């Protein structure tokens, strides 16, 4: 018997949802019955995602730079205007800036932290204010899901601001979960391992680089965005009603691994 969740008539905001994991989450939520707001800074990709998802259910694109407080305020207002409620927030928007520690520019450090960490804070706070008001009026509590990474625990030396931001999201998830628990609002995070997004596609086409990834992945494959979306759907649903303050790592077994595994030749 298959495991399924339902988000019927729930309203969800997903940031960075124009492509990759964010788009996969948006698609899964729409298929599970949610009304989805796609938030992104890439208007072309955002509108394309909106049209794609409208063939499956209800979806609306809203431009939003999560690092800008006014953009976030407009995102919340636009969602309430479109659907009248917010039940779920997925803080997925994120960027990277590759550089060695000694050469890392302050501007790049600030930009990554502003989007990945501050953006998660701004969106969470704005949406949580609505959710708390709703609970105080007798409504159902909502769910906030942050996109973390295995790099909240392990680290990559040339991805300093990214790793720092994801480490910060771990603590932001815990502290906001404790703050919002009295209202029944749950806050959790997902920590993906190597997932087949556009960013990883070039690595996957290079056999040596692909084998390097697989050598640290006990399940011997790269994950799919839909597999992260499945975790998000669970965390957003009533099936996760007693889960809060947690980070669920979907990484094919990578974090427990203290060595590398043999990679078979070929596919």
Q: How are the secondary structure elements laid out?
A:
Layout: E1 11-15, H1 20-31, E2 35-40, H2 43-54, E3 59-63, H3 69-83, E4 88-91, H4 106-136, E5 143-147, H5 160-180, E6 186-192, H6 198-204, H7 207-215, H8 225-236, E7 247-250
* Share in helix: 40-55%
Principal-axes geometry comes out as globular
Which regions contain 5 or more consecutive residues with pLDDT less than 50?
A: none
- What is the straight-line distance between the termini? 30 Å
User: What does the radius of gyration come to?
Assistant: 18 Å
CATH topology description: Rossmann fold
Structural class: alpha/beta
Protein name: Dehydrogenase
Keywords: Oxidoreductase
GO molecular function, one term: quinone binding
Family: Belongs to the short-chain dehydrogenases/reductases (SDR) family.
Name the features.
single chain; 7 strands; Rossmann fold; 267 residues; alpha/beta; globular; oxidoreductase; 8 helices; KR_dom
Write a structural description.
It comes from Roseibium aquae. Keywords: Oxidoreductase. InterPro entries: KR_dom, NAD(P)-bd_dom_sf, Sc_DH/Rdtase_CS, SDR_fam. GO terms for molecular function: oxidoreductase activity, acting on the CH-OH group of donors, NAD or NADP as acceptor; quinone binding. The chain is 45% helix and 13% strand. The chain has a single domain (11-197, 224-250), classed as Rossmann fold. A seven-stranded parallel sheet has the order 3-2-1-4-5-6-7, sandwiched between helices. Strand 4, helix 4 (106-136) and strand 5 (143-147) form a beta-alpha-beta unit. The mean pLDDT is 95. Helix 4 (106-136) packs parallel to helix 5. With 267 residues, it is α/β, with parallel strands linked by helices. It starts with 10 loop residues before the first strand and ends in a 17-residue tail after the last strand.
């Amino acid at each position: 018997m298959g495991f399924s969740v339902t988000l019927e008539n729930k309203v969800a905001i997903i940031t960075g949802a124009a492509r990759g994991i964010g788009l996969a989450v948006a698609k899964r939520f729409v298929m599970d019955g949610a009304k989805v707001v796609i938030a992104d800074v890439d208007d072309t990709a955002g509108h394309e995602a909106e049209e794609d998802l409208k063939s499956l259910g209800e979806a609306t694109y809203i431009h939003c730079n999560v690092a800008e407080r006014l953009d976030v305020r407009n995102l919340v207002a636009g969602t309430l205007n479109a659907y009248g409620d917010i039940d779920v927030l997925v803080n997925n928007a994120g960027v990277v800036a590759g550089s060695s520690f000694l050469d890392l520019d302050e501007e790049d450090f600030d930009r990554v932290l502003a989007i990945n960490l501050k953006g998660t804070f701004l969106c969470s706070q704005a949406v949580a204010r609505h959710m708390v008001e709703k609970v105080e009026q007798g409504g159902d509590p909502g769910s906030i899901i942050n996109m973390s990474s295995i790099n909240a625990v392990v680290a990559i030396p040339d991805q300093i601001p990214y790793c720092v931001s994801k480490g910060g999201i771990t603590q932001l998830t815990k502290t906001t979960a404790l703050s919002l628990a009295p209202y029944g609002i749950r806050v959790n995070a997902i920590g993906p391992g190597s997932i087949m997004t556009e960013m990883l596609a070039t690595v996957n086409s290079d056999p040596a680089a692909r084998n390097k990834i697989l050598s640290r992945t006990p399940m011997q494959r790269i994950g799919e965005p839909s597999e992260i979306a499945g975790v998000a759907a669970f965390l957003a649903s009533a099936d996760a009603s007693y889960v809060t303050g947690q980070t669920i790592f979907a990484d094919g077994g990578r974090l427990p691994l203290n060595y590398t595994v043999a990679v078979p030749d070929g596919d």
